[in-house]
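Q: Structure tokens for this one, please.
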Amino acid sequence: MHAGETVRVLRKTDVSVVLHNVQLIGDSIVGDAGEPPQRTAIAVSDVQMITTRQTDTSVATTGIKTAGIVVVAVLAAGLLAIAEFASIFK
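A: Here is the predicted structure, written as tokens:
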């Protein structure tokens, strides 16, 4: 858990709370919860589990995905061109 992150806290009472802008202060997890956001503190001793959303923002992964999309587009365009060319000779 990193300061400022958004986490889902599952309390020992099986109640789930989403906290934004999280900080660990003393023996509590503190963050903004609800709409409108209100500062909320949950004692670490009351926590069953904490989950975070992981995002994949690496440049390499983004580059590989982009390259894959380009390859598929080029192959599709090539297949369409071949089909068009073949239809000329029918």
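A few notes: The first helix runs from residue 59 to 88. The chain has two domains: 7-52, 55-90.
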